């Protein structure tokens, strides 16, 4: 499951998530609500 599903999952707070940071950053740039929520807890893009 982790190899196939977790590499495509949008639950970025899951410890099994293996999506690359650059992909996650691109996702956040397109989703203002999620970006604000992650930044509130200290996430930095780039």
From TrEMBL:
Protein name as catalogued: Uncharacterized protein
Organism: Methanoplanus limicola DSM 2279
Lineage of the organism: Archaea, Methanobacteriati, Methanobacteriota, Stenosarchaea group, Methanomicrobia
């Amino acid at each position: 499951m982790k190899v196939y599903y977790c590499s495509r999952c949008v639950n970025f707070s899951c410890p099994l998530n293996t999506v690359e940071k650059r992909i996650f950053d691109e996702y956040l740039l397109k989703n203002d609500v999620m970006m604000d929520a992650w930044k509130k807890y200290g996430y930095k893009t780039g």
